[in-house]
Write a structure and sequence with these properties.
By secondary structure, the protein is α+β, with helices and mostly antiparallel strands. It is built from 11 helices and 9 strands. A hairpin with a 3-residue loop joins β1 and β2 (about 35-45). The N and C termini lie far apart (about 50 Å).
């Protein structure tokens, strides 16, 4: 059923702020085929203005087939990691039928910047940039130490399972790309052995981090891909070149070095992880992103999607191939 968010928000404002509360402003920030993000504010007599974020699912969700979590699971994850000290947007409300908005939750708005290219190049972040990689390591140690909330019902995966899943997706396209073929073969042969699995963010990268120009990492966003797995998966993903935004010389998010990331992780209580293991997951991350880019191009080429965004992202397959050649030549 279609939902008019702007029509429903005034009632939500009263629920959150009291009978006299009013909606002071609302703006849709982003949204794809299945998810929307709205910024809105609530004002009530005698109370400070509350700036809030609504994340809402706008398409049917099947937990059995989807790789993403439900928004209720996201809310549980945010509450769980916040209790361990990890920076996440403070949870305000999980919507129910009375709100008339479908599946969604509300968090407090956190000040900062999420655009990766600005974070790696804007002079406003010059002072804080040198400590971001260490902070990321510290934050990941806090996340990985968090017991997974049972109500989130998270899936478990490991290196070979992820590799097999993306190879199956790649084979379904009928594509024959030599670098990707070589990478699948190499990573099967050099897969790191399994380790004790932990709670993972699943999409920990520059672009999903709210960075404040004075304090650094202010919040970790977008928990929909959280799952249980190898802690090196999260550390490797932020090192994928596609998330460095034009700064290949700084492997961690375009702003730091491996040593700083791993030092922060260990200092915050994370078990030592060899750089070789992080690099293996980085290689798998580049390969996964290459397959995803290929799928986006195919969706446009076959007419399933008409947006020009799909082929624009699709052409980045060649970028991931260059990354993989460099990684394989350097050795894992």
């Amino acid at each position: 059923m279609s939902v008019d968010v702007l029509t429903a928000l005034p009632a939500l404002a009263r629920r959150l702020g009291g009978a006299d509360a009013v909606l002071a402003g609302a703006e849709r920030l982003s949204g794809g085929a299945s998810m929307e993000t709205w910024s809105f504010s609530v004002e009530a007599p005698g109370a400070p203005r509350r700036d809030l974020i609504l994340r809402r699912r706008s398409a049917p969700f099947d937990p059995e087939t989807s790789r993403s979590t439900s928004l209720a699971a996201e809310a549980a994850l945010i509450a769980a990691v916040s209790a361990r000290g990890a920076p996440a947007p403070p949870l305000v409300h999980v919507c129910d039928e009375a709100d008339g908005l479908g599946e969604c939750h509300v968090t407090q708005k956190v000040a900062g910047e999420t655009l990766g290219r600005r974070i790696v190049s804007d002079p406003r972040f010059d002072a804080v940039r040198p400590k971001l990689a260490r902070q990321c390591g510290e934050v990941l140690a806090q996340i990985h130490a968090t017991p997974p909330p049972p109500e989130a019902n998270l899936k478990t995966s490991d290196f070979l399972a992820e590799l097999a899943r993306y190879e199956e997706t790649y084979r379904s396209t009928g594509a024959e790309r030599p670098v990707l073929e070589l990478s699948f073969k190499h990573l099967k042969k050099h897969a790191p052995p399994p380790v004790e699995p932990v709670l993972l963010h699943g999409d920990f990268r520059n672009g999903n981090l709210m960075i404040h120009p004075e304090t650094g990492v202010a919040a970790v966003l977008d928990w929909e891909l959280s799952h249980i797995g190898d802690p090196a998966e999260d550390l490797g993903w932020i090192c994928v070149n596609s998330w460095r935004f034009g700064r290949p010389d700084r492997p961690v998010g375009g702003f730091g070095d491996y040593a700083e990331l791993l030092a922060g992780y260990e200092a915050a209580g994370g078990a030592p992880i060899p750089l070789s293991r992080v690099r293996a997951w980085q290689a798998l991350g580049s390969l996964k992103w290459g397959v995803m880019c290929l799928m986006m191009y195919m969706s446009w080429a076959t007419g399933t999607e008409v947006s020009v965004e799909r082929p624009m992202i699709g052409r980045r397959v060649s970028e991931t191939e260059a990354d993989l050649v460099h990684i394989l030549e350097a050795g894992l």
